[in-house]
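Hi R.,

Here's the chain you asked about this morning:
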Amino acid sequence: MKFATSVALPMCLAASNSFFVKEKDVVAGMDENCPTVKHYTAEFHQNHVCDRAAQNAAKKTLGRGATQAKLHNAGTDGVPSEHTTFCPQTVNPLTNPEATIGFDTVWLVENTATTPVVISYMIEQTDGTFKEVSALDAKISPPHHDPKAILQPNEWKSIQTYEGHVFHVREIMPDGSMGQVLMQHRVGLVPVTNKYGHELDCDPSEADPEPLVEVAPGQLNRDPNFAREAPQEMRPCNTLDVGFRNEVGCPINAYYTGMYQLKGVAKPRGEKRFMGANATEVSDGHTPKSCHEVFKFHLGLKEKTNNFMFDWNSKTKYEGTYVGHNFVFRYAKDERIVVDSIAMHPTQVIDCPGLKNQVNAASVASGEAIMAGVVQQDYDVSLVLPHQQHLLDMQHSNATQPSLNNTSFALLELPSPSQRRRALASAADGAARTLGTSAHSL
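And here is the predicted structure, written out as tokens:
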């Protein structure tokens, strides 16, 4: 698990070696009786799927410093949360007229449907209408004319994008034409919630002190047990830069658990359950920390701080992560209480038999229209920069995107639906919430 950003730290933090901690120090500080945190390199991040040097170089051109400055002034509350709609009967815009475009990130999408699909988005024209274009090349329309935007069954693709952008995934019909919208996906911040319904005792006005230790007379540094991991150069392919946002209403601590998930052990207080190797019965809803948990970051309650990326009391934190990684979020006031758990996975397209989309002619925010800047899986730098510059110019000139009233999805008048029966994908009410890999950052 690595955290990396091209944004310079304030002098007080940059000069302090205690703000970051090295991975070897984290491992050395673990209980010697605990097994090693298990992690692996999923296919999406292995060296053969990208040119690592080109991909890392391209990331440095995306203006993260300007984005951080914009969000510092506007706040992060305007950046939308990640959202995915499967098999929509009504195709509604997932944009918000007041939305703020956030940081760049990677969206991993995997086609688990039985038919080919095409990934697209809508781009605004000079006359105010919208055109549907390839998610891999905004110059190609209709999008299914771009072979790189098509995913065959069991194929996946990485797309460089920005928080707040919306994609459509449509089926390819047997005659090669585009069919229904099988999925809509909005890239955004990952909300951390009180998933297990605990009755938490906290007051928004209550102090959330940063844990400090005295390292010399009059000199205080952050407790190394609560330090961030040091940034990494030359990150693996398709590193997921995920922004987490505190929506619990209480300060919480995030722990990385490798490839281990908490399953069925974090339930509301008062429910009897069995926990541990010896099946010990407990009834207070408390979940002791696992040997596999390593502190990663703290989520406070403040939207605007001196440096929302690093300040202890900031409600938003970003983490570089990978498919297969898991996070556990604990109530900071009583860390025996788990409020949420999140697992990293690609966003999976599913079959939607019998689907017949209806088009919602509601107004569409132009945030959906400026989704240029996505790049191909091989991260050809010659293709990245021209597309990225258009988006960077627009997002840096406006903190929020203006709305376009009464603009309909004219190009989403879709052909007849396929005859397959819709396969409903229901997520089990388990302890680990699985999220698409957009988000789920720096």
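One quick note: The CA atoms of residues 230 and 421 lie 49 Å apart.

Cheers,
M.
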